[in-house]
Amino acid sequence: MTAMIRQPSPNFNERRFPLDMLVLHYTGMETGAAALERMCDPAASVSAHYMVWESGEIVQLVEEDKRAWHAGVSRWQGDEDLNSRSIGIEIVNGGHDWPLEDGRLPPYPEAQVQAVIALCKDILGRWDIPQTRIVGHSDIAPARKQDPGEHFPWVKLAREGIGLWPLQPGTGEATLASALEQIGYDIGDLPAATAAFQRRWRPARIDGVDDPETRSVARAVAALYSAG
Ligand SMILES: [Zn+2]
Questions:
Q1: CB 149 within 8 A of CB 203
Q2: Nearest to 172 by CA among 109, 121, 220
């Protein structure tokens, strides 16, 4: 069990579905302190189960068996009310709204990444969460959200058994839309779903365009998802 401090938030209620998802976010605010204050403010009506500081320190705000309020309107593999189904982790990072002076996204420090990995491993040890249901906020709300961002090291997490990462190009003739749907994306807004997919698995270019490389990677991820 990773060390953590508790700062209980009033922003939670009862789950309506079994817990079988893990949702990763960035805080997207100027500081972690501001994010923590907001998640404990009843007027804000937002929260998460955990927040992970840049230093790797972990704060627990909501008990895991309760429904925290982090996902908003979202959809994955046909399911909605993902707050009822998930544990939410907010990772302190300014993200797209608070870039560095040179315009780059603020990096995730290694100590923070290692703490996120340890926390996710703990959670996956306690709950039956399929690999295909470990998601970023942008995966489940592609038209609204960009977090945890294309700078989040998903590949490092995958190497630790948190989420799937394809090691070879995809094969077959599946269209991009059908591959994204097999993975779990809501393809109602296909360019948004495509951009969300690129942000996670092909971050070199996030333009929402159906190109051969995006298609190939999406087929590879879809194959992993249908296998496991
Ligand atoms: Zn989020």
A1: no
A2: 220
CA atoms within 13 A on the CB side of 86: 32
pLDDT digits (tens, 9 = 90+) for 29-53: 999 999 999 999 999 999 999 999 9
Catalytic residue among 14, 90, 110, 160: 90
Catalogue the E-assigned strands of the chain: 5-6, 12-14, 21-26, 50-52, 58-60, 66-68, 86-91, 134-136
* pLDDT tens per residue across span 59-107: 999 999 999 999 999 999 999 999 999 999 999 999 999 999 999 999 9
Distance 136 CA to ligand 1 centre (A): 8
Which residues is 66 bridged to in the sheet?
14
CA distance 193 to 145: 11
What pLDDT, in 10s, does the model give residues 108-128?
Answer: 999 999 999 999 999 999 999
Q: How many angstroms is it from 55 CA to the middle of ligand 1?
A: 20
Examine the pLDDT at 168 and tell me if it is beyond 70.
yes
User: Please, what are the domains in the chain?
Assistant: 5-165 (3.40.80.10), 167-228 (no CATH)
> Exposed/middle/buried for 108, CB within 10 Å: 0-12, 13-18, 19+?
buried
Q: How far is the CA of 70 from the centre of ligand 1 (A)?
A: 6
183 alpha carbon – ligand 1 mean position (Å): 20
Spatial CB neighbours of 88, under 8 Å, sequence gap ≥ 6 = 23, 25, 47, 48, 49, 50, 68, 70, 71
Any catalytic annotation for residue 37? no
